[in-house]
Amino acid sequence: MRFRTCTSPHLIPGHSVGGVMRQVLYALVPGTLAMTWFFGWGVLVNVSLAILFSVLFEALMVAARGRPVLATLGDSSAILAGWLFALAIPPLAPVWVLLIGTAFAIVVAKHLYGGLGYNPFNPAMVGYVVVLVSFPRELSLWPSPEGLTNASLTFLQTLQTTLTGRLPDGMEWDAITRASPLDMMRESIVSGQTVTEVTQSPLFGSFSQTEWEWAGNLFLLGGLWLLYRRVITWHIPVSMLLTLATVAGIFWVMDPDYFASPAFHVFSGAAIIGAFFIATDPVSAATTPKGRILFGAGIGLLTYVIRTWGGYPDAVAFAVLLMNMVAPTLDHYTRPRIFGHSRDRHG
Amino acid sequence: MQLHRFHGGLKLPDHKAESTVHPLLTMGVPKYLYVPLSQHIGAPTEPLVQPGDRVLKGQRISQAKDYICAHVHAPTSGRIKDIVDHPIPHPSCLSAPCIVIESDAHDQWGDTRLPAWPDWRERDARSLRERVRAAGIVGMGGAAFPTAAKLNPRAGKRIHTLVVNGAECEPYISCDDILMRTYPEAILEGARIVAHILGAEQVLFAVEDNKPEALRALTDARPAEEADFIRIISIPSIYPTGGERQLIQVLTGREVPSAGLPADLGIVCQNTGTLKAIRDAVLHGQPLISRIVTVTGPGIREPRNVQALIGTTFADLVAAAGGYAPGVDRLVMGGPMMGFAIGDDAVPVIKGTNCLLATRVEDTQAPGPVMPCIRCGECTRVCPANLLPQQLYWFAKGKDFDSVQDYGLFDCIECGCCAHVCPSNIPLVQYYRFAKQEIWGREKERQKADIARERFEYRQLRQEREEQEKAERLARKKAALAKKDTDPDKKTAIDGAIERARAKKAAQSNEEASPADRERADS
What we know:
The complex is a heterodimer.
Chain A: H1 17-39, H2 42-64, H3 69-73, H4 77-88, H5 95-110, H6 123-134, H7 155-164, H8 173-176, H9 181-190, H10 195-199, H11 210-228, H12 235-254, H13 262-267, H14 271-278, H15 289-309, H16 316-333
Chain B: H1 17-20, E1 25-26, E2 32-36, E3 46-47, E4 54-55, E5 60-63, E6 72-73, E7 78-87, E8 95-103, H2 125-134, H3 147-150, E9 161-166, H4 175-182, H5 184-198, E10 202-208, H6 212-221, E11 230-235, H7 244-252, E12 267-271, H8 272-284, E13 290-296, E14 304-309, H9 314-320, E15 328-333, E16 340-342, E17 355-360, H10 361-364, H11 378-382, H12 389-397, H13 401-406, H14 417-421, H15 428-484, H16 488-511, H17 515-522
Parallel strand pairs in B: 1-14, 9-10, 9-12, 10-11, 13-17
Antiparallel strand pairs in B: 2-8, 3-5, 4-7, 5-6, 7-8, 13-14, 15-16, 15-17
Helix pairs in contact in B: 2-5, 4-6, 5-8, 12-15
């Protein structure tokens, strides 16, 4: 009797790329729901539209490159990129911001560099940075949390706002939006207030604005689940948050009136979602264990530096992209000691 | 005893219960046996028999010519039908010369057994090693390295510890488990003999903790007074803890140097099956002509362990285990992690055949196509050699053979952990084997080129020397002539002759211009 021959191993593999990506998607659900609760339907509208655009761009590019479309879409990586991008965008941003951002993320940052596995930069962050530097006004319109304002938009009103870029009649942008905690901290400090004065505002919870804290907590929950499921390793999130907190702590101890607390930094903006969901994108991150620790530490440090002294309130996206650049170098210099080799083989 | 951990590894479903529900089955003698001349790495053997010869069971039928080689013996009595190319168990699926024995059904030993040595403790290491060699024993864990060579460590290496490898870490395989349950005394006796040969002071007998029956049988069979000499150690079941280097790290916490051998740490490692074979060779004078094979997998009706003669075809073996189950699609020699697929079940059992695994499509199918590497690093986490498999893959794929060696390609033990956990279903080990083959091929080419270059340079040197000698001879002759001929008339005549000769020579050398010159002239 004759048999088919193939190479070992002869067992069903334990994982698949699609499976890994889908677990990350599941882990994003609680944090996304929390953001929807606080910021309104716009979050869900953005996520749905960005996913739709990303998948369309992915399908187009894959078809143009002559690869199997359905098999490639099955890896769910475009959905993840679209989702992460959407979470960085203010909930009432106009639709063309989503379109331009996802186009840059999928077409330029991903496929022009060779598609999944070959992109040196995190696609979602490239998309976000492109729209952030191009459309600063649209990117700063974070709505006040639901319940803190009288004017809240229905689902249809939200959809209408997103698609037309205009608020329903009788509503003003100033009435329904307000500065995000990082913006607020920055502007207040510039105008001479102390950190304590800012955090004593009724908008603040224990560390940061209440809604950002809650979103952070739930993204943290999703991130811990990913760690438990071994979809990500601890190296990047732990080193990034620890570095951010340590550096913030040093300056805070030196001058607590001028520098915000470590907890404020960890629970504001994109620190937590960045640590667990964005910096851990394996393709563009460092791949050796030690390299990942340095990679995460670099992001934490750069985030603090740009937030405190740079031109933008939040900095996770810039920090991630900057560290993406050095990831190959980190990998080169952090090779583990091979079994049976002496310790001094790789410097 | 303090145990240690090696980096990475996998907890795999062991699938060993399927084949251990039935006791060991000793197979009858098949009508035809196909005994390959080469059953291991190293030189092939040279046959001592002709087609038509009658042979007795245990008779040496093929001779080792090399140090890294092992004799082959007739597994049963009968007639040599032919010496012919036949499919052998090898990843290439190629055929190789096999001695075909037609059994006479008597299974007769005659006087082919070597003298029994119940008094082996009186013998010296040299004669015992010679006995191991005469019995054609090779490592029976799968690699089939000739054992006599392994029992003779390089000069200056004192061996203090014999490690007995009863880990059997690959899923499905249970031949060592059954052997330890069935013949614990014989294995322990083999361990004593080998410790005697090596001068080892202690025996560390390691068995994975998923084999409690084997552990109990061994502990019961070991006399209480030997508890310090032979230590039976239950080790955690983590694949690939049965790898020699991994096992030594688990037991001692020490790493065998990359380019070295366990002997560098004063350790020699032996498989349980090998020890049983050594004991049979020393105590009973029997050569290695049969072994236990696990016939198992979802593609087999009644998975079990079979004591089979070397040369039994896989088809006969499967028949002894109830035949194939419906849907069988792949036949593997060895375990699911490191075994290789066999193209034809006409191939015979060889000394290194520990397992025959038959699977169906649904048992091995990847959930999707091969995807690009996403550098997730799962492979790094599980690699027992602490390599960066994703980087090795990158360099191997790009044929950057310098970098792939720099990243430790040759420290890869091909255990398959990386390929098993790869979410992109990349057949990583295949890339590493390819890179190794390419590098070996290039090395050979380079050696050939070196030889050719040396030969060429030597030829040039010789030609130059000849030219020089010729010129010197001419000069001497000229000088002698000039001295002799001082007469003016004669001198003019000679001068004229020289002139003519020169003109002729110039014409000739124009004709004899080098091919390159001629080409230049032509163009």
